[in-house]
Specification:
Blueprint (H helix, E strand, L loop, with lengths): L2 E6 L3 H12 L4 E5 L6 H6 L1 H19 L1 H4 L11 H25 L3 E4 L1 E6 L2 E5 L5 E11 L3 E3 L12 E2 L1 H4 L8 E5 L3 H13 L2 E5 L11 H13 L3 E3 L3 E7 L4 E6 L5 E6 L1 E4 L3 E3 L6 H4 L22 E3 L10 H15 L13 E3 L4 E6 L2 H7 L3 E7 L4 H5 L6 E7 L5 E8 L2 H13 L4 H5 L10 H10 L8
Parallel strand pairs: 1-2, 1-6, 2-3, 6-17, 8-15, 9-10, 9-15, 10-11
Antiparallel strand pairs: 4-5, 5-6, 7-16, 12-13, 13-14, 18-19, 19-22, 20-21, 21-22
Helix pairs in contact: 1-10, 3-5, 3-7
Length: 467
């Protein structure tokens, strides 16, 4: 055996797992096919998209809100889109370079190339120059992540019909873009381009945006994006996509059955992601896949082959970087004989639109399906002093608590700093706090977090103070 642990894939799940394994004294190697570490999240996902979201939001505020703040703007603010992309690339390089440093610091070997199983105990790494090397280990962790999904009748040519990967590296600001899918990727990238001046149309099959999240959240976000100028089409089906050298035409059908052809410069397919299990030699290792080509694993991330584990997007559960990280730590500690724990119901969801969206725990629909009686507390940011002072008073905090015990079961936020605030709720729920526990906690004033306290007060015998 060359190593104690070999991890295939250097995304957040893979590299975090490698670091924790090394911290626990294991001889560890990380396999990566691309020239930079960090996987989709750091290179063409979470980090670059957040860089563009932040920059485009600053531009939008400067252009539309500065006069209200008392700043006199002379002339229009120009967008140098190439510089947007350049800065995004600098951010990515800085973060991925940091992962390189962490690998060296923790004495983790990087095996460059495409890794696949030769047998249950051996992998072969095919380098870019064609050379092949084989390595053995006591344990393997599959952390190969996911790829953008598509529909059977859509051909992604990466020129006019694109995925999020290509959208994050466009060299020229599009005049128009149609986006298939109103999930996290669709609304985030739609926000980026709409703020910069692109005519954006989001097409969603379900009755609201972010259909997997709280119903009130999706509807509120839809209203906000429409104010941004985005043409939001819900209950709309895509029936065909055709591309030319200069445009893409998306044929849609609404709930009444009427069809329309939408012609735009680009069509972004953002219907989700699929696990990347292609050509990994999993059959040679004896590892089983489910009907969705996900690696099947148990509560300990262990596959049917006991010394092979799977974490992150390649297995079941939400496709989130932080979920993969937690699973990476779990596997490392499990291998070390510890007894780690993950509560999958308390993994926060975050959407970096404006207003931001965040959620943890159950939605109302989920509580009804489980037959759990609940009560609701809701507080609008328009009644929060800090939000009003910052001109960020859109949205609300919604708390769902057990009707009998008052335990907080779900928190759903749309509004300023929602992606930071949600961790207050997550920590409270990890300790099984009641709505009254939070309501009786002293919050600093003025802060947007007070809206969480007020929502808990509202859930506790309708005791909210400021509404």
């Amino acid at each position: 055996m060359n190593y104690d642990v070999i991890i295939i894939g250097s995304g957040p799940g893979g590299y975090v797992c490698a670091i924790r394994c090394a911290q626990l004294g294991m001889k560890t190697a990380l396999v990566e096919r691309y020239s930079t570490l960090g996987g989709t999240c750091l290179n063409v996902g979470c980090i670059p998209s957040k860089a563009l979201l932040d920059m485009s939001e600053k531009y939008h505020v400067a252009r539309h809100d500065f006069n209200d703040f008392g700043f006199e703007m002379t002339g229009d603010i120009k967008v140098h889109f190439d510089k947007f992309i350049e800065r995004k690339s600098r951010v990515v390089n800085q973060i991925t370079g940091g992962v390189d440093y962490l690998m060296k610091k923790n004495k983790i070997d990087i095996l460059r190339g495409f890794g696949s199983f030769v047998d249950p105990r051996t992998i072969e790494v095919l380098a870019e120059d064609g050379t092949k090397n084989r390595y053995g280990a006591q344990h393997f962790v599959i952390a190969t992540g996911s790829k953008p999904a598509t529909l059977p009748f859509i051909t992604i040519d990466k020129k006019r019909v694109i995925t999020s990967t290509e959208a994050l590296s466009l060299h020229k600001l599009p005049k128009s873009m149609s986006i298939i899918g109103g999930g996290v990727i669709g609304v985030e990238l739609g926000s980026v381009f709409a703020r910069l001046g692109t005519e954006v149309t989001i097409i969603e099959y379900m009755d609201r945006l972010l259909p997997g999240m709280d119903k009130d959240i999706g509807k509120e976000l839809g209203r906000s994006l429409k104010k941004l100028g985005i043409d939001v089409r819900v209950k709309t089906e895509v029936t065909a996509v055709k591309a030319t050298s200069r445009s893409a035409t998306v044929t849609v059908k609404n709930k009444k059955g009427d069809t329309e052809a939408l012609k735009t410069e680009y069509c972004l397919v953002a219907i989700g992601r699929r696990p990347f299990t292609d050509n990994l030699g999993l059959d040679r290792a004896g590892v089983q896949l489910d009907d969705w080509n996900r690696v099947m694993s148990d509560d300990n991330m262990q596959t049917n082959v006991p010394h092979i584990y799977a974490i992150g997007d390649v297995t079941t559960g939400p496709m989130l970087a932080h979920k993969a990280e937690e699973e990476g730590v779990y596997v490392a500690e499990f291998l070390a004989g510890q007894k780690p724990h993950i509560d999958y119901n308390l993994i926060p969801l975050a959407v970096y639109t404006s207003p931001e969206v965040a959620s943890v725990g159950d939605t109302e629909i989920e509580l009804k399906e489980k037959g759990i009686p609940y009560k609701t507390g809701k507080f609008p940011f328009k009644a929060n002093g800090r939000a009003v002072a910052s001109s960020e008073a859109t949205g609300f905090v919604k708390v769902l608590a057990d009707k009998k015990t008052d335990e907080i079961l779900g928190v759903h936020i749309i509004g300023p700093h929602a992606t930071e605030m949600i961790h207050e709720a997550a920590i409270a729920m990890e300790f099984r706090a009641s709505a009254e526990d939070v309501a009786r906690t002293c919050f600093a004033h003025p802060t947007v977090s007070e809206a969480f306290k007020e929502a808990c007060l509202a859930a506790t015998e309708d005791r909210a103070i400021h509404i």
